[in-house]
Amino acid sequence: MRIFCIANQKGGVGKTTTTVNLAAGLAKLGLRVLVVDLDPQGNATMGSGIDKRTLEVSVYDVLLESATIAEARQPAVKAGYHVLGANRELAGAEVELVHLERRERRLKAALLAVRDEYDFVLIDCPPSLSMLTLNGLCAAHGVLVPMQCEYFALEGLSDLVHTIKQVHANLNPDLLIIGLLRVMFDPRITLQQQVSEQLSAHFGSKLFNTVIPRNVRLAEAPSYGLPGVVFDPASKGALAFVEFAREVVQRHG
Ligand code: ADP
Ligand code: MG
Fold first, then answer.
1. CA separation for the pair 182, 192 (Å, rounded)
2. pLDDT by position in tens, the chain (length 253)
3. Which atom of ligand 1 sits closest to the CA of residue 212?
4. Is the CB of 133 under 6 A from ligand 1?
5. Ligand 1 atom closest to Cα of 185?
6. H or E element in which residue 178 lies
7. How close is the Cα of 13 to the center of ligand 1, in Å?
8. What pTM was computed for the model?
9. Which runs of consecutive H residues, i.e. helices, occur in the chain?
10. Which among 127, 172, 221, 251 is least surrounded, fewest beta carbons within 10 Å?
11. Residue 214 carries which DSSP code?
């Protein structure tokens, strides 16, 4: 079982879109996938077709050890993977965990119990370097960073890289950045091409070959409770994510 965090401390950069579509892509390839929603906004939960408002047990209960993953997970039936969902309640876990033991290792411990049931676990992190994100980073083998090819993209990465180094040194020696994924890419924009080349020069093989284009079908899919890969499998965005799933399996399967 490979465990990856999808993280970037900026909001709106494509973390959730990457999580649910990579999950659906891996599922299409026949792999067993669990998505863990660690964002109190619950977008990965809703975007997988699970109503966060009616969730009775969630990742919140798992972190506070009042439920196991087996009790809290839900099947995303059409997308072909399982979801450990989140909702607003999760925002409270941040405060509640502070006083507890092994507070940053709760998710790691819970995942041990299902390690034979999944090939991949994808953790959708909130856009902050919080106790929730720390739980994700402690549990993971690697971090996958979606990024837009904008002028300040590289600068924004330095905080995340610093945090990953800290976690690597103090809490999780397994942790490394497994790769950067270019998302919402528009090849007609010269600046994006230039930044893409800079990323390639700077990160070399840590940059995934697959590039996710800006594609409106990917943005429409969540309102139907589906990943784009399932909502419109023939769309350019969906095809790119299935290709990306293949690349992830080739490199890390
Ligand atoms: P984050 O989880 O980092 O906050 P999201 O995945 O929610 O980011 O993406 C932010 C917004 O951009 C959402 O409205 C999403 O539908 C849209 N989006 C993400 N990726 C693409 C893409 N490749 N093409 C078009 N829209 C996208
Ligand atoms: Mg998100």
1. 10
2. 999 999 998 899 999 999 999 999 999 999 999 999 999 999 999 999 999 999 999 999 999 999 999 999 999 999 999 999 999 999 999 889 988 989 999 999 999 999 999 999 999 999 988 899 999 999 999 999 999 998 877 777 888 889 999 999 999 999 999 999 999 999 999 999 999 999 999 899 999 999 999 999 999 999 999 999 999 999 999 999 999 999 999 998 7
3. 23
4. no
5. 23
6. strand 176-185
7. 6
8. 0.97
9. 15-28, 43-46, 59-63, 69-72, 90-97, 106-112, 131-139, 153-170, 190-203, 216-220, 228-231, 236-252
10. 251
11. P
| Amino acid at the residue 243 | E
Contacts with 100 (C-beta within 8 Å, 6 or more apart), sequence order:
64, 106
How many alpha carbons fall within 13 Å on the CB side of residue 230? 25
Instruction: Give the CA distances from residue 199 to residues 148, 182, 202, 208, 251, in Å, rounded to whole numbers and listed in that order.
Output: 11, 9, 5, 10, 19
Q: Which two tokens mark 244?
A: 């990306």
Which residue, chain included where needed, has tokens 């965005």?
237
User: What distance in angstroms lies between residue 103's CA and the mean position of ligand 2's atoms?
Assistant: 23
Q: Nearest to residue 245, comparing CAs of 42, 7, 18?
A: 18
Residue 191 φ/ψ, nearest 5 degrees: -60, -40
Question: How many residues in total does the chain contain?
Answer: 253
Whose Cα sits closest to atom 5 in ligand 1? 14
